[in-house]
Amino acid sequence: LDKRQLGYKVTANSLYGQCGAKTSSMYEVDVAAATTATGRKLLTYARRIVEEVYGNTEVEVEKGVTVRTRAEYVYGDTDSVFFTFNLQTLEGESITGKRALEMSIILGQQVGELASRYLKAPHAWTYEKTMMPFFLLRKKGYIGMLYEKNPNKGKRKSMGIVLKRRDNAPIVKDIYGGAIDILMNQQCVDTAIEFVKNAMRELVEERCLLDKLVITKSLRSTYKNPQQIAHKVLADRIGMRDPGNKPGPGDRIPFVYIHSDKKNALQGDKIETPDYIVRNKIKPDYAFYITNQIMKPVQQVLALGLEKMSAFRRRKERFLDAVETINSHYWNDVVKRDKKLADLRNNEIKEIVFDEFLRICENMKKRNQDITKFFSKK
Question: pTM value?
Answer without folding.
Answer: 0.79
